[in-house]
Design goal:
By secondary structure, the chain is α/β, with parallel strands linked by helices. The protein has 22 helices and 18 strands. The protein has a six-stranded mixed beta sheet with strand order 11-14-15-16-17-18. Strands 2-3-4-1-5 form a five-stranded parallel beta sheet, with helices on both faces. Strands 8-10-9 form a three-stranded antiparallel beta sheet. Helix 9 runs antiparallel to helix 10, helix 14 packs antiparallel against helix 16 and helix 14 packs across helix 17. It starts with 13 loop residues before the first helix and ends with a strand.
């Protein structure tokens, strides 16, 4: 049997990827393009799990003159044998293994308090100082420098020293190697996002600003820097005065193919693992991202999908990204949505588009200042994609849509959770009494009120309304709730069986109308279906004395309710 490389689930480090023989899509020409551009500082913004850490680790492996624990220099060229960068020419390969490198990830700063987040960041700094502790053994830096170095290494330094610690390490490395330093900062915006949602935003912004200003703005020892994250956050002033910062967002065509999988790469991937026949399914679930003009697949989801399919863990696509990515921004949008925003969400989930002005330099503190800011956050973090671009005056407007089935699932699931969290504390006793008492008018009024507050996803309207109603009656005491069970000659929608047989049993048959004028007829059709299909047979057989039958029709944010008890039909509403 032909050997197929193992799949790199969660593998973020380039050396591990190559050394252990994982399947790797060659992105090494990213190195060439960086050298061609010759920017002093570049910020790449991409959604989470799109290969940013792996790209940074690859840069570190290629450029670093890595000093091993025995004082020798590592030969990292073995990790690039047969890779595209080795065919790019000597003008690029001559840079291999020539620079001291500082690599710092801030993802560990996702902590509940400022003290813990700050402590996590300075611990990452300590680890990088420890990695370069060979500086303490030679005479490349002064004794005074070594004293300061040890304060940081031993976690005994003042906050101001930590705030300038990347710059200081750069100076020490340049003195030792006689070569300027490459700085790689990964997940730079995690501390800011985390701080915003946990209530210590201003404190964290102040520290990160000082850390970055000294490292990237006033650092004479800097060769070049690459920073990665989800968002550009320039108005935070963490990049104040850094005029040569080149920001490469999802709107840029430059470097577009180096984060995520292109169509050709995806086809080759599926072909390698013998599942190319699933191409259309993969495309509908995990494609849809557009970086510049380049079509890109979500690499994390695609790798997980291929593993599950080839290992027969599942036969169907799953929303892998929803289990790893922070959905706090989606929740923020939904929980604070006004009527207009709810309508736009419904339009998106139904497969439509919305048009919004795009701003790349907003801040987390700006989220609630304008609903447009939240749409921008959703776009730059991968929850929306550009479907078109236009200019009105000097302002760029984007037509935005949901990228794929996976992201649709995230919206729908988040909306369900939001709706359930809202109805739990709500006093629905009036609704429950109306259902039991056969009060169709009050039942209808309560449903209309809840519908106005809800967000619907209409790809399968009857399923939405079915779930909506089940959510509302979930807290109804004294009744067993049965849904879509086979009874009589068909399948009813919802059946409520009382534990006390003296209480009425209830059958709810649901319909959906495309026009308001069709609701009454659909209610009558629902009631007739209950009779024709004999949905009440099991209740009669069990001896229930009173059975209330409801025909309910929904149309957008409206509804009509009719009730039948024995032979009398009562109808209410307009």
């Amino acid at each position: 049997m032909e050997y197929i490389r193992p799949l790199p689930i969660g593998v973020e480090f380039y050396k591990q990827m190559i050394a252990k023989g994982y399947y790797y899509i060659d992105k090494t020409l990213f190195i060439r393009d960086l050298l061609v551009q010759k920017n002093t500082a570049t910020l790449f913004t991409r959604p989470r799990r799109f290969g940013k850490t792996l790209a940074q680790s690859m840069l570190k492996t290629f450029f670093e003159k890595e000093i091993l624990s025995d004082g020798t220099v590592a030969d990292n060229s073995v990790y690039f044998e047969g890779k595209k960068i080795m065919e790019a020419g000597e003008e690029y390969t001559q840079h291999m293994g020539q620079y001291p490198v500082i690599f710092l990830s801030l993802k560990s700063a996702r902590q509940p308090t400022y003290e813990m987040a700050y402590g996590s960041i300075i611990d990452e700094i300590r680890k990088e100082y420890d990695r370069h502790s060979y500086l303490l053994k030679g005479d490349g830096i002064t004794e005074k420098d070594k004293e300061r170095y040890n304060l940081i290494l031993n976690m005994e330094a003042d906050k101001i020293i930590y705030a300038k610690s990347i710059e200081f390490l750069s100076e020490c490395l340049e003195k030792h190697h006689k070569k300027k330093v490459i700085i790689l900062l990964d997940e730079y915006d995690v501390p800011l996002e985390n701080a915003y949602f946990n209530g210590f935003y201003d404190e964290m912004t102040t520290f990160i600003r000082s850390l970055f200003e000294s490292a990237l703005k006033t650092n004479d020892s800097l060769e070049f820097a690459v920073t990665t994250g989800c968002l550009r956050i320039s108005r935070e002033s963490i990049f104040t005065g850094l005029n040569n910062l080149d920001v490469v967002s999802v709107l840029n065509e430059d470097y577009a193919e180096y984060f995520g999988f292109t169509q050709d790469e995806t086809d080759s991937f599926l072909e390698t693992y013998g599942i190319i026949e699933r191409r259309d399914e993969v495309k509908s679930w995990y494609d849809g991202y557009l970086f510049g003009n380049t079509e890109v697949y979500n690499p994390w989801s695609l790798i997980n999908y291929v593993k599950d399919i080839t290992h027969r863990n599942t036969e169907f696509p799953k929303p892998y990204w929803s289990n790893t990515s922070s959905n706090s921004i989606v929740r923020e949008l939904i929980e604070n949505a006004d009527d207009g925003t709810r309508e736009e969400l419904e339009e998106l989930i139904a497969g439509g588009t919305i048009e919004k002005p795009v701003h790349e330099d907003i801040t987390y503190a700006d989220i609630q200042k304008s609903q447009n800011n939240l749409w921008n956050f959703l776009f730059f973090t991968g929850y929306l994609k550009a479907a078109g671009k236009s200019f009105i005056g000097r302002q760029i407007y984007l037509s935005m849509t949901i990228p794929n089935e996976e992201i649709s699932y995230i919206y729908e699931n988040t909306i369900r959770e939001w709706f359930n969290s809202r109805i739990k504390p709500a006093n629905l006793s009036g609704l429950y009494n109306a259902i039991i008492n056969g009060d169709a008018k009050t039942f209808e009024d309560c449903l209309r009120e809840q519908l106005r507050e809800s967000i619907s996803f209409m790809d399968d309207a009857e399923n939405f309304y079915h779930g909506f109603l089940l959510g509302l009656i979930g807290g109804m005491q004294g009744y067993r709730k049965l849904s879509n069970r086979e009874r009589g000659e068909g399948r009813y929608d919802i059946l409520l069986k009382p534990y006390d047989e003296r209480q009425p049993a209830i059958i709810l048959e649901l319909k959906h109308a495309k026009k308001f004028t069709g609701m009454e007829g659909m209610c009558q059709k629902a009631l007739q279906q209950i009779e024709d299909k004999h949905y009440d047979e099991v209740l009669l057989d069990e001896g229930y004395m009173v059975i209330k039958k409801y025909g309910i029709c929904f149309c957008k944010k409206s509804c009509k309710v009719m009730v039948k008890e024995q032979s009398e039909i009562k109808k209410y509403g307009v």
